Amino acid sequence: MNNNKTSLIISVISIVIAIIAIVFALTKTKTSQETTSVPSNTSDLKVAYVNVDTLLNHYDLYNNLMINYYNKQNTYERQLQSKLTAIQRQAMTVQDQYQKGLITTVTYQQKMQNLQVEQEKVQQWYQEKSQELAQDQQIIMNRVTDSIISTINEFNKDAQYYLILNKAALLYGTPTMDITDTIINLMNSKVNLNEQ
């Protein structure tokens, strides 16, 4: 399930980055027409691509944030299981007491109803924690996307490339067009600089 979420997140980031790269390239071309002439020959068009999947796998900030996210998720799941197990044990105890004739039918029904209410509270608690995790995940993705875009903008501030695309959106690109490692190094150097 976590792999599906991560794949979905990576796909969404890939699409967003491809769109932003195209928009950036188009606006960069428009704003720099006075200083930089757009090549009339498409063979002079400088294009690069970034493999976002590889970038995310090697981006220290993303990996650290996701480790914290998964730790939090696992903690909530363990707490949920612990709470549900405790309720199940209580229900078995009440059932046992009733079968041995230690409690009346009315007391049995009341205790089982109380346990039902307790179980609903636990499920509501977990639903709230799931919403919290979804918000955390959105914050992580926004932060990582902003970081990727700002790094690419910084890398291409001299407009050496007219287009920087996501490899996932390409049918073909030569390896010399791949700037993934350069972007990864720039992004990780920023993370390491901020940690000092």
Question: What's a concise summary of this model?
Answer:
With 196 residues, the protein is mainly alpha-helical.
Structure description:
The protein has 196 residues and is mainly α. It has one domain (2-173). The chain has helices spanning 2-31, 52-58, 60-99, 105-155, 180-195; strands at residues 47-50, 163-166. Strands 1-2 form a two-stranded parallel ribbon. The protein is rod-shaped. The two termini are 35 Å apart.
Shape: rod-shaped
Helix/strand order, N-terminal first = HEHHHEH
Low-confidence stretches: 29-42
| Helix percentage range | over 70%
- Secondary structure class reads mainly alpha
End-to-end CA span: 35 Å
- Please indicate the percent range of residues in DSSP E strands (runs of 2 or more): under 5%
User: Number of DSSP helices?
Assistant: 5
Query: What is the number of domains?
Result: 1
| Main sheet: strand order | 1-2
Characteristic terms for this protein:
196 residues; 2 strands; mainly alpha; 5 helices; 73% helix; two-stranded parallel ribbon
